[in-house]
Amino acid sequence: MPTEQCNFRCTYCYEDFRVGRMKPDTVEGIRALLSNRIEKLDQLYLSWFGGEPLAAADIMLDLSSHAARLAARHPKISYRAGITTNGYFLNQQLLDEMARVRILDFQITLDGPSEIHDQRRLRADGSGSFDMIWNNLLLLKASPHPFKILVRVHFDRDTVAWLDPLIQDVQRDLITDSRFEVYFKSLLRMGGPHDDHLNVFSESEANEKRETLLRKLYGDDIPEEEPAICYAAKPNALVIRADGTLAKCTVALNNPRNSVGVLNRDGTVEVDMGKYRPWLAGLESLDLDILACPLQQIRKLDHPRLLSPASIRLNS
């Protein structure tokens, strides 16, 4: 997370933006961590997140350049990177620079056609963002680079009936390019200050609506999906926050159970295994629900009556 600040103020956001740009000591720590670990790796995947990571594009490109140079010296290593971005700051020069350092996977969110999107994915000054994001999606399409772009489309009870114009635009302008894929995601209450105002679906209703939206977009040729496994459920994944603390999850940023360690300037990491191990409960149990979102199990640790005897044993 090169910065935890953002140029957007989405109405359903759960972040508080209290942490700013990544400090030099943390940048050096990441550089050293990569240098220390590179010879022992077969694969290296960096995911850039925020806040809005492109608000600190200089840090992202600097560290990505370092990773790309290290990988080039060790040809056996598969290296690739991705970014979750609101897409607002993209331009041709930045796309070329990102491709050069192997940032090739994008996730960019839309909330509907412009009249819906611009009520929800607001810039910090209160203005809309749809036109800029859409133009930058077309810029990605025009690019020759081997990008993979996941367009995430949010919906809830208030918006699901109004997505058809966006679906038609996506059919016409984006998914004719095989580099683009669309994922429909029902909004959830993630702990943000406006959660009480979100008109969300139940899980079963959301799955039904999502299937309907996919059929509208793809017809009968819906892409196959493998069971979701969250990065937070994987033992070899860590979130390095802008302040140098280590986390497992990019959602529960203020949950003490998610603060699992610290990265030092010399590239060494200090990990509290007592906090770390419960995040791996899904890997131990092979429970697909927990693998998809280990945070649900972590939150239950604060309410032991919700835990089954089996899960208590796994997390003790």
Overview features:
TIM Barrel; 2 domains; 5-stranded parallel β-sheet; 12 helices; 9 strands; 16% strand
Task: Describe the protein's architecture and organization.
The chain has a 5-stranded parallel sheet. Strands 6-7-8-9 form a 4-stranded antiparallel sheet. With 316 residues, the chain is α/β, with parallel strands linked by helices. It folds into 2 domains: 202 residues, TIM Barrel, CATH 3.20.20.70; 84 residues, no CATH class. It is globular, with a radius of gyration of 20 Å. The C terminus is likely disordered. Helix 6 crosses helix 7. The chain contains 12 helices and 9 strands.
Largest sheet: 5 strands, parallel
CATH class of the largest domain: Alpha Beta
Rounded to the nearest angstrom, the distance between the terminal CA atoms is 30 Å
Order of helices and strands: HEHEHEHHEHEHEEEEHHHHH
Q: What integer is the average pLDDT?
A: 93
Assess the beta-strand content as a share of residues: 15-25%
Strands, count? 9
Layout of strands and helices, then pairs:
Elements: H1 24-37, E1 43-48, H2 57-73, E2 78-84, H3 92-100, E3 103-110, H4 114-120, H5 130-142, E4 148-155, H6 164-173, E5 180-186, H7 203-218, E6 239-240, E7 245-247, E8 259-263, E9 269-271, H8 273-276, H9 281-285, H10 288-292, H11 295-300, H12 309-315
Parallel strand pairs: 1-2, 2-3, 3-4, 4-5
Antiparallel strand pairs: 6-7, 7-8, 8-9
